[in-house]
Amino acid sequence: MKKLEIISSPQNTQIKLLGKLARKKYRQQLGQFMVENLAIIYDALVSDHDFQSLFVTQKFIDSRPEKFAYLQAHSACTQWYLIDPKLNKYYSQLETPSGITAVYAIQPSALIPGKSVIYLNGISDPGNLGTILRTALAFGFENIMLDEACVDVLNNKVINAAKDAFFKLHIVEDQNFAWLKETALPIYAANSDGGVALVEFKASPIFCLVLGSESHGVSEEVLQLAQASVKIEISDQMESLNVATAAGIFLYAWRS
Hints:
Blueprint: E1 5-7, H1 13-20, H2 24-30, E2 32-35, H3 38-46, E3 53-56, H4 58-63, H5 65-74, E4 79-83, H6 85-91, E5 100-105, E6 117-121, H7 126-138, E7 143-147, H8 156-162, H9 165-168, E8 170-174, H10 178-182, E9 187-190, E10 196-197, E11 208-212, H11 220-225, E12 228-231, H12 243-253
Parallel strand pairs: 1-4, 3-4, 6-7, 6-11, 7-8, 9-11, 9-12, 10-12
Antiparallel strand pairs: 2-5, 3-5
Helix pairs in contact: 3-5, 7-8, 7-12
């Protein structure tokens, strides 16, 4: 068993660090982010994605002894902390703190050559973004590109919605559509306002699918870059689909 250092003060530097990691500014400065979900932490470790430090309450240890023992046995982490439940509430981004927090280093990522790319244009809702990430992995799409208008992918709500898919995908950020303007992949824009019906469209084996926000859709600049617009035909009684739902339909239809 690895020794746990006891922390009881909110003024402790490690607790202050956790408070900072709730904000994008500090995540970028410190090169770290945190996860407060046991299932994600556990599954990530099973997939060889280890954490830098771990914070737990005694209640958590008592309620999840087998999972905690697995984390201790398989993690190379040397920074283990036992914290008071009040401290968990002090920094937690959850309405009901989970009793466990893992801190990870932000790892550089790159797209896998020769595979399709899912390009997300202005997806601002963290739940939608996380669900799209999880859906992409489920249907075999590992390359994800985010433009600067998307919500921060390290947002706690994004990670909780994405589950361990977050650690298994190749997620890269694009600035000013630079990658999109240079890619040799055919670009298909999801466009509920017009375009070829999905059921009639024949996609290339490798492509870039652009999904826009539910409220604004794919931006006009991106539509100009696309070789084709593709729409999902729906009932006249509905104006549009939730973007995460639309993503699931496209990705299932075009899965490898």
